Amino acid sequence: MRLGKVGGNYDKQVTSYIAPDFGLQDYGYALAKTILEAKDPATAWIAMNDRLVIGALSYLREQKIRVPDDLSLVGFDNLDIAAWYDPPITSVDQVIPKVFRESVARLVASIQVPQNNTSIEDWILPKFIIRKTT
Fold first, then answer.
1. Are 17 and 42 in contact (CB under 8 A)?
2. What phi and psi, each to the nearest 5 degrees, are found at residue 71?
3. What is the structure's pLDDT at 93?
4. Half-sphere exposure in the Cβ direction for 27 (13 Å, CA)
């Protein structure tokens, strides 16, 4: 696995780690191992999804690293298993059902009354679900 450390236009204390394939628990496990071997002093990790957190938790448990006492983890998608995992995973819920309902309602409205079909820009904000990994 080739891993790159990516800098960005944000605080120098933030580091991003990427690799060509991602998303599954085994990748979260491997990535956690790589980050710890790099001696990264971070006290919190934000993963692109909850599956990565699940994989990372497996590796961290093996290394006797206590979450959230030693390291905090946040996922991003609030999978149904996140609340039931041990420890329950703090996650950003993208409120997909709400996005879907709003999209369908606007599509139906634009079909029913085409003359009122105007561009609408709205924000549907995600929810931060705090559980036991932070």
1. no
2. -155, 135
3. 95
4. 17
CA distances from 89 to 6, 19, 38, 126 (A): 25, 23, 24, 16
Contact assessment for residue 121 and residue 81, using Cβ atoms and an 8 Å cutoff: no
Higher pLDDT, 65 or 30: 65
Please state, in angstroms and rounded to a whole number, the distance separating the CA atoms of residues 89 and 80.
10
Q: What percent of the chain has pLDDT over 70?
A: 85
Q: Which two tokens stand for residue 37?
A: 């071997």
Assigned token pair, 81: 């298993």
Chain centroid to Cα 120, Å, comes to 27
Using the structure block, give the residue that is written with the tokens 């956690």. Answer: 32
Integer angstrom CA distances of residue 101 from 6, 95, 97, 98, 106: 36, 10, 6, 5, 9
Domains of the chain: 4-94 (3.40.50.2300)
CB atoms within 10 A of CB 100: 10
CA dist., res. 85 & res. 53, Å (int): 10
The pTM for the full model equals 0.77
Kindly report the backbone phi and psi dihedral angles of residue 35, in degrees, each rounded to the nearest multiple of 5, phi listed first. -65, -45
Q: Which two tokens stand for residue 133?
A: 């990994």
